[in-house]
Specification:
The protein has helices at 9-38, 40-51, 57-76, 80-97, 100-103, 117-134, 143-149. With 157 residues, the protein is an all-alpha fold. Helix 1 (9-38) packs antiparallel against helix 3, helix 3 packs across helix 4 (80-97) and helix 4 (80-97) runs antiparallel to helix 6 (117-134).
């Protein structure tokens, strides 16, 4: 089947930028998800500290596995609305749990280490996820983008 339209040079540039953004975000979340599998007890302690809940190792492994699967979908650009939005919502949850750090971004501990700088990184990543979701239709260098240009079923987009 012929593609709907040939990509213009600007479309290709936009698609390349979104490919870089998509792969970077998938890798960022993948690292956190992989650590859930590698060091699950650390995440049990985090859940207890930040959320006041006890979670089992099975729940940690399951959560990490789901996140890894979503990262693979995002990296490939498959089920884009679902996969990109799922990681966005997960990351938004993380940002909302740590909002107090935004109120004191320059706080340092007694050893001079900036203790709230990860929240600044979290905001940048949140902005990148929002941009990725808003620009899905320009994400041509993805499986979903390829399928859309070749009149394939929309549910894969």
């Amino acid at each position: 089947m012929e593609p709907k339209a040939v990509l213009s040079p600007q479309d290709k540039l936009d698609a390349l930028a979104l490919l870089v953004l998509r792969l970077g975000l998938a890798w960022f979340i993948f690292l956190w998800a992989a650590h859930k599998i590698i060091t699950p007890k650390q995440y049990q302690n985090l859940a207890r500290h930040y959320d006041g809940v006890d979670v089992s190792l099975t729940q940690i492994y399951l959560g990490g596995g789901v996140q890894i699967a979503l990262c693979l979908l995002v990296a490939l650009g498959v089920l884009r609305y679902f996969s990109y939005s799922s990681l966005l919502i997960m990351h938004l949850f993380t940002v909302m749990r740590r909002w107090e750090g935004f109120l004191d971004p320059f706080a340092i501990n007694d050893r001079g280490f900036p203790i709230n700088r990860n929240q600044v990184i979290d905001l940048a990543v949140l902005g990148a996820f929002i941009a990725l979701v808003l620009l899905i239709r320009r994400d041509h260098f993805s499986v979903g983008g390829w399928l859309a240009r070749h009149d394939r079923p929309r549910w894969w987009n």
